[in-house]
Amino acid sequence: ELIEEYFQRYTLRFEGRDPSVDKVQQLVSSRGAPKKTMRALNTVTGQFEWIDPAQVEYAILSHTWDLSGEQEYNSVRDLQLSAESTIFQNPALSFKVMQACAIARRDGFRYIWIDSCCIDKSSSSELSESINSMFDWYRRGAICYAFLADVPNRAHSDALSRFEGSRWFKRGWTLQELIAPRSLVFLSADWEVFGTKTTLIATVAKVTGVEEGVLRHQKALSSVPVVVRMSWAANRETTRVEDKAYSLFGIFGIHLNTLYGEGENAFLRLEKEILIAIPDQTMFAWGSDTAIPSSRLLQYPAYHRPTVTLYEGVGPRPRSLVALSPNNFAKSKDIHPISHQRWDAFGLSQIPIPNFTSSPYGIRAKLPLLPISTFFGSTPFDQSLSPNTSWYLLLLACTRSGQVLARVCFAQKSQNPLHPKLLQRGYIVLSHPEEQRVEEGLDMVTLNPTQLSLWRKDLLVETVYMPFFMNSSDAPIPPSVPRPSASSLGNVAIRIIEEKWCRVALSEAQGYSPELLAIKSRATKDQTSAASTTYSLLLPRRDLAIRVDFVFDYQKDSTGLPGYSLRVTASTFPPNAPESVDLISESNGQAVTRWYEESGIPDITLRTHTGGGVTLIQHLAEVPPMEEDLDAHWFKLRVEIIENVRVRMSVQEELEPEDLDWFAEFWDLVLREYMEAQYLTRIEWFTEFWDYISREFTDCEDFVH
């Protein structure tokens, strides 16, 4: 510990000036000290400290850099060395750093990480390590504050539209800073809470294109196709061209050295590593919005048939099969990978599972190729501009609207079978002489699975090399604090406190006045002398009141060990109404068996008196005991509310006979339109509708009759 303390002080004043610093650091690590890999700012002392992000709770800031520049590491360090008390009293400290620390300190966080001042960018090795660790740091942070410098607070009439158009949603680095954190609070230009990622989930998903399941960590990022993840980054801006690639390392779970100055090579290096780590062929499906259906190429009438010409290159376009920028994926969100079993279903069992490896000639893989002569059949095509090449359609294991995608490509002919087959991108050009019109080069077509089955005998499976012309990432988060099992809690008092940032967000952004009440413990019926503890969270607002009850029951599990179980019940009421009289909606008491794990408490959706709905997102996490009661188990409670939710009618809610008049009218209309009810079973929309009705109203005898 003495060496650790000496090392902290020594590096603050002499970092990088004496080789003995490295010796001290090496000595510390050799003695089994915790691995401290993140330089964070202490929100109380204003000093830099090295922390282990896996063990220490911290806040983290996401922001867009000011066009005039940001206060960086060396500047803040100079203030620390010159300050007699704390840097927070020094007017030279930037307002952004000061406010970020104040917000984190208010919410109970001792440490905060700010990229602009916590990375020594004069050290290329530290910068590279930080970039490779950044996604994980944002993922592990207890809270992420996203400061939106161009968004006013909620009091402004155009606040929401300004939020949707914020520069923060257009920058490259903020994509991972949006996806990685589990808890994210948006701060307006005056540092007031605007909302959270959860409460604004629909708006954020619409603006960014990232689906809600990914934003809420309900869907693993690794399960999203490569092409879709790339589409999220399309048209986002970065100051340095290399950052278009570096900002995506965490999105794909890739780790590479950063080499500022390599330009567009950075993105090509990233694509190569993605192919090796994630053999997802949607990577090659960029620009597929211009893919031409094979039927259009093959079914022209003879008198109107265009001239088909094969070109190795059209204008300045590169010949690589991979994209040069995330922008090329802008219109590729609806691409879906297909499993290897689907090839078997198409009668193409000879296609192997691809394995992409690196070689001096490019990425090597065994892939299916359809000779272009087979594709065109009797349709004539002109290859006079590239006589020494063999032309193919590279079949990709992905579909768009149910059609298999294929890239137009070519390889130079060789008399030596040992020469590698270098596959490059080519183009089909359609000329219409009678119309004096030429369609631009088409480099992708869509194929009907039936057509593929007919061509399976002509399909080639060959080892090819795809040159990368250098011209131009669930694992769950290891908990920072050990989570006990229910049986390990024992007969110990339960204490719950609110997350401060969450309380502020509910109040400032949504108008609720949270109040957490502890109801006195009561003895249980099994005479174990234990107690059941209830905490009630009241969330009143001028137009609505919500109550959530958390009931901890002391009991023995199947093994005979004591422990606590948790039941959660939520209710909604009109504002200032007696609960027993004016109950609007109440959830069933949900027995939560794994509430102490990262999985958290199931979401609860309730109706409001206006006919709308709210969804409660809740989470409990154990924290170290506090001095008020060192023997108790302490938990932090996080509650976020998604509003304007569409609520389905519960089957438990009875329907009056007059509520079904609409169906009688609907059925009369159906009979008039289709005459024979048997025909309805062949109408897809009606089948889906009837399934829905059956699910929703199975307990309603009037409806069935």
UniProtKB/TrEMBL annotation:
Residues 58-150 form the Heterokaryon incompatibility domain. It comes from the Eukaryota. Residues 265-467 form the DUF8212 domain. It holds the Pfam family DUF8212. This is Heterokaryon incompatibility protein-domain-containing protein.
